[in-house]
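Notebook B, p. 112. Complex prediction, attempt 2.
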Amino acid sequence: MQDTLRITEVFYSLQGETRTAGLPTVFVRLTGCPLRCQYCDSAYAFSGGTIRTLDDILEQVAGFRPRYVCVTGGEPLAQPNAIPLLKQLCDAGYEVSLETSGALDISAVDPRVSRVVDLKTPDSKEAHRNRYENIELLTANDQVKFVICSRDDYDWANSKLIQYGLDRRAGEVLFSPSHHDLNARDLADWVVADNLPVRLQLQLHKYLWNDEPGR
Ligand SMILES: C[S@@+](CC[C@H](N)C(=O)[O-])C[C@H]1O[C@@H](n2cnc3c(N)ncnc32)[C@H](O)[C@@H]1O
Ligand SMILES: Nc1nc2[nH]cc(C(=O)O)c2c(=O)[nH]1
Ligand code: SF4
Ligand SMILES: [Mg+2]
């Protein structure tokens, strides 16, 4: 029996988020997530999907001849075979990122992968799932992200930034407005007013293609 993963979609687009925003990237979206963030824009990946072998996924990725590959979901780390997939993508020579909720242990992820770890805010309704042990594992190759829904979420994110010195632990600290919940301009104004060492992140793909799956 070959190693398999349940996959919602594999597509080639411009990376809409994180430090590689704007760069052509292959996305591998794994099916299923143990969380239910209030704002989730990828709920279509909670169920369904297709069981595929790692070899089959790697072959499809190679067909796009990408430099960047992003493994997302759903929650990738909820499937044990996400770990070998990430390693094999690195071995194939791609620059690999992983989007993860921050609720699961990130320690087994290949160190060549840039781990994009969300800290779920109170307004996500999943903040109780945050696995704070992950913070000690972060390196300059990793990114920490807060999806912010309100001024209260912003103040909470700012307090975590200070409490854990996140800007010194991770290569990037990203503050992203929750699409539909918070005006990007308000968040931009708060970041400037408070002189925070964080990068405002807008979801480029939503400006370009609205909320279409597969873009
Ligand atoms: C759909 S999740 C999949 C990966 C993983 N489950 C996670 O939460 O990081 C990918 C990224 O999209 C973000 N996201 C989801 N819905 C969003 C929204 N409405 N506005 C902004 N970012 C959102 C998540 O916080 C996460 O950083
Ligand atoms: N273009 C594009 N960039 C993305 N970056 C992260 C995404 C995600 O859904 O995790 C995503 C996505 O769905 N589309
Ligand atoms: S953890 Fe990620 S995929 Fe799961 S509900 Fe939250 S944003 Fe959506
Ligand atoms: Mg998305």
